[in-house]
Structures are given as C-alpha cells and as structure tokens.
Amino acid sequence: MTLSHGEITATMLTLGVMLASARLLGEVAKALKQPAVVGEILAGIILGPTVLGSLAPGMMDFITPTDGTKLFLNGFSTVAVTLFLLVAGMEVDLTSAWRQGKTAISVSVMGVFFPFILGYLTVLLFPGLISHPDGVDHYIFALFFATALSISALPVIAKTLMDLGVYRTDMGMVVVSAAMIDDLFGWLLFAVIIWIIGAGSPEHFSPAVTFALTLAFVAGALTIGRRASNRIMPLLNARTSWPAGILGFSVSLAFFAAAFTEWIGIHAVFGAFIVGTALGDSPNLRQKSKQAIEQFVSSIFAPIFFAGIGLKMNFAANFELGLTTVVILIACLGKIGGCGAGALIAGAEKREALAIGLGMNARGAMEIILATLALQYGIIGPGMFVALVAMAVVTSMISGPAMKWALGDKRAFRLADLFRPETFINPLGGEERDDAIAELSAILAGPSGLNPVDIRLAALHREKIVPTGLDNGVAIPHARMKGLAEPMIAVGISREGIDFDAPDGQPAQVIFLILTPENDNRAQIEILAQISALLRDSGSREKMKKAKNFGEFAAAVKEMSTHRAVKKQTPSPQGGGRR
Q1: Which of 134, 311, 468, 496 could form an S-S bond across to 48 if both were Cys, CB 3.0 to 4.6 Å?
Q2: What's the rounded mean pLDDT across residues 339-349?
Q3: What residues are annotated to the active site?
C-alpha cells in the first residue's frame, strides 16, 4: 500500500499543524509554570472534534487525518510514545533511589499500596460511583483503576521541584526517588493486567509463557543488560560523535526491546521503558547525554502524540462531571495520604511529610499514556479516559503551588550572612571532585566543630545519590550533619573548573559546600532555593567566577541580591506592582 499524492500532502499538513500548535501551547503552558503536556493536549482538543469540530467542522476535516493517512499517523504515535517511555525510564535511577534509604522506600511503598487499595475497593464496594464498561471483567477494571491511581509522573515532579528550587535538597531527592520506584511498579502492574486479560497475547504464546518471558526480560535487562550497556557507553563516548553515538545506541536498543515485548504480547512501550531504566541507571550515561535524548523526543515526538489524543475524541461530549470529580478526589486522597503517611513513618516532620505527599501527587504524561493504552485495549470507556486525563492535568497543575503552601514561610536569614572570609578558598588546589570537597571540608571543620573526614564523607555520600553540578559552572555539594548548631557554607573558586556532572556538561568553577543541622530540613531547602534564585543573573554569576578574593566575591553576591530584589519590586507592564 502506498500513499497517494493527496494523502502525502494531507499527512504533511496534519503533522505540521499538530507540531506547531502543540509546541506553541506547550511553551505557553511552561511560561505559566505548568507542564508542557497541558498545552500539548489543549492543542489537540482545540484542533479536534471538541472545539474546531463543533465550530468549524469543515476546517477540522481539512487539517486532520483522512482515512488514508490515519494508519501512518497511528504508527507515528506508537513510535512517539515508545520514545517518550524510553526517556521516562532514563529518569529512573534505581541505584540512587535505593541509596536514599528508608524514607524513599517508605514513601514509595505507601504511595503505591494506599492508593492501590483505595482504588480497588472503591470500584468493588461502590460500583455506582465508578462503573466498568460492558464486556470488561469487574475485577480487571478494578485492578486497572487501582494501578492508575498508584502511578506518579517523574518528569512533572522533577520540573516542579526545580521550579521551587528544592530539587537537590534531601526532601527533593526523596520525592524523586520515590517517584522513580512508583513509576517502575506502575508499569509492571500494567504489564500484569495486559497478561491477565491476554489482550496482546499472540497465538504462538499462551498467557503463561508471555508472563514468564516478561519476567525474564525485566530481570535480564536490569542485570545483564545494564552491565553490558555500562561497558559499551564509554566506547561510544570515546569513539563516536556526540550526541549521535549515544542517541543512536539508546533509540536502537529501545526499538529492539519494544519489538520484543510487543512480540511476546506486552505493549511495545513497556520494553522501551525497561531499557530506559537500565540505561538511566548507568553511571556512564552523563546528564548531558540524557538531556540530548530528552530534547530530541520532547521537541518533536511527544507534542505530536499528546496533540493526537485531542484529535481522536470529543472531550466535551464524553465529560462526566460526577465521575471526573470522584476520580480526582480519590486520586488525591490516595497519593497524598499514602506518601505523607510513608514520610511520617520514616521520621519526617508533619509539614515536610505533607509537602512530599503533595509533590508525589502529580500524574502528568505517565497517567495519560496509561489511560490511552487502556482505552486501546478496551479496559476503560471514553468517560473514564476523559476523567483520567483531567485528573492527570489537575494534579500536575496544583502540585507546585500546593507544595509551596505546605513548606510554609521562608526562614528569616540572609544568604550573604553565611559567606565568610575564613571559609573562602581561591583558588582550589584539587582538580577532582573529591579533592575539592576535601579542601572545603577542611576549612569548615574549625568553625563547625566537626571532623573534616566526617564532613567529606557525608558530602560525597550525598554526591553519589545525585550529582550536585548545576548549569553554568556551579556546584552545590551539601550534607545534613549531626551536632551542627547552625548552617554553614564554604566557597571555593576553581579557575580550570572541576567535573561535577552538570546537566550542561560544563565544569564547576564556583563550588558551594553547604552544611545544615541534621534535623533542620527547612534550612537546607531555603539555602538551596536562595542560591538557585541568585545564580539566575548571568552577569553577576560571571563576576563571581572571576573573583580574585573574598571582597570581589561578596560584591558579586550583593549585586545578585540587588538585581533579584529590584526585579521582584518592578511593576508589571499593566501597571500592577507587587501584590
């Protein structure tokens, strides 16, 4: 079968309109501090039967797929969602998650168990609230709904934490690590559902064989496959051009795995997700490479996929207010309550536990993909699909503001007061990350009253969980120390730069070693948030890097603080000042 001249024209036009609209509204959503997926789905809703189909059906028919191009676009969407799951899997660093210890595990376990039980029992005990489609087993539907409530959206959660300036705090890492584990368990549970219903099982495999092959694939990918890719990546980094070598290797591997899982009867996206998890856990896959792959997918493939969702369905006609309200309420109660309880069990204080629960509540794109696949398999109907999409969007939008509210008022201290001449080094003598941390630990030992070896080991342990390199030549190694009376910061300037595995690949020229009291999580959150805010001014940041002594460094910090204060107080173009 070949596409005709008219069908090729229609296909190119549809792709162009979908991509342009999704990217535009995605950028608008990001400017409004919302996930890009919100704008991308909205683009499809506007172009599809919900808006344009009602207002100007002739125009909708002109820019949406014809019968001859639907097959191509469906295949393109499958490729897009497969690559998106590869990127999502790369965000799952299991080694880092386990290093977080009992808090992350407790939050993750309760964050899956509590919403799962709540969702499952709600469907079974109150069938009038959430009914299953005709022809779908009641228990299978309950199992899916429970799984849908258990999953989180790691990309949205990470972006929310970055916007709040708490991504690299201990609390932020607990949330990210727990979300990693939740995503993995969520997709494993969905694979089990597909196996139970036998929706994708080919004739040459029984459901039991499909299940056994799935377990073998997951175990092999996360053990043998992980070790093999870990050996291949250094060769790719050394002998191929960047980022083409890593990009080609990762995407090819994802396609092979996707083909395998589709062949054995589990959806292709599952294979890509597991491969992403195996690759993302490798210490040889640098943050810069992850970013290149993520940008490749999120700039082109993901927007078209999410816009395509709106083209396929009339959201207004299938919207059920009662069902949507119940789904959102149960989802929020289950995730916030479960994760918050897990944090309390692990010893977190109440405000921190609430913030963790609210942060984990974002569902985002992962929920939407799960709902899309369930709709394809006939597990849910259009009404439930719209309700789950609405739940994903609402939970993602409220996560950031709710976390900010839960964390409460900021601490009343000035960051500049923590910088002192006696804890400033220029230049740093070491060329490696460990050497720099050792130098800074030594100068903090006297004023803090702590052993320099204990400081160094605590900072290095935290560094192994997630590297603390930031963009633009800055690093923020930090640790919470037992016996420390008040927060302290040491600053080191490196002329040549030191590798702290920053996302942009640049070596760190300004290194802040931040120590905070063990039981004072608010101090660490506020210090890291203030540093993130100050460093947004590029001119002052460059002056900080070139500072020859503490006086010039302090002047650069003061200039940054002044610019930040002026920006906050500057009236908006509409004449409204700060409110």
Answers
A1: 311
A2: 89
A3: 478
